[in-house]
């Protein structure tokens, strides 16, 4: 479901439809087709949705060994019974999370979980796909923690937190359809320091563009004269500090000083200097490295710039980092940023 509106739109209520029909919600607040940044984002996402192979009229059944029970299901689908899910359309990217509860003492050396999906391909062929997973059992708690799948745990906890949130349906529309590879960076964004990145960062290596080493989201890595990139798979923020030297501003934005720079949603110029080309290559790589159809917008955020931009940058940062960015009120907001 693609939503465009220049006025208020009840996305939370409308999102119930794709939730029950195993679809996805794409929301474009204050969309302007004449603005190239908006047009590129929509064209990319709409084209990816139309071009992806999908399964139709699917029914998913999950069984497990004796002593295990399917306790809860999370994702975009309709629950028909205790272990049967109806998914009218199954794209390639959404993930589904199932909580399995232990009801009896497990004495076997391993347990088996089997998922079967009966579906029709987009070419009209009826197929059954079966995935069988065997997991060893143990009585040692340390072995459980050592072999735990951190991504799966984070995905489950995120879905459970969304269900208990006051913004349940809105968050459901935005997060529950994300694959785990995209959900994790949304929860813990990636943070790069660009002004002092290694010389090879942004250059093309054997495996494509070489990315800088991600830094922890802590204030000790912020510098008052720096240029930083923060991305969560949905948005990319290019944060520039107020004490950035004029040469840095010129190399990246083609402006003589920081005061003339305007924050917002720009098209970053590709200039005839190595640093500009490296920064643009890194930003382009962030668009390509995340699984999914979403095309993140790029926002330039000045340290003393527009409060909505700074507040939105704050919403994807950890609290201790936001204090260093001098944002007054941590919050999560949905708005169009200029």
Keywords:
338 residues; alpha+beta; Immunoglobulin-like; Severin; 3 domains; four-stranded mixed sheet; 11 helices; 15 strands; globular; disordered C terminus; Sec23/24_trunk_dom; transport
Question: Quick summary of this structure?
Answer:
The protein is α+β, with helices and mostly antiparallel strands. It has helices at 11-14, 16-20, 36-51, 141-146, 150-163, 168-175, 180-187, 246-253, 274-289, 307-315, 319-324, and strands at residues 2-5, 26-29, 55-64, 68-74, 78-81, 84-90, 97-102, 110-121, 126-136, 190-193, 204-205, 208-209, 227-231, 235-240, 297-302.
Give the total of domains: 3
Fourth-level CATH superfamily of the largest domain: Severin
Low-confidence stretches: 322-338
What's the pLDDT, averaged over the residues? 82
- Category from helices, strands and their pairing: alpha+beta
Radius of gyration: 23 Å
Strand order of the largest sheet: 5-6-3-8-9
Task: Please identify the top-level CATH class of the largest domain.
Answer: Alpha Beta
Strand content: 25-35%
CATH architecture of the largest domain: 3-Layer(aba) Sandwich
Give me the count of strands: 15
Overall outline: globular
Major β-sheet profile: 5 strands, antiparallel
Order of helices and strands: EHHEHEEEEEEEHHHHEEEEEHHEHH
N-end to C-end Cα span: 24 Å
Count of runs of 4 or more consecutive helical residues: 11
CATH topology of the largest domain: Severin
Helix content: 25-40%
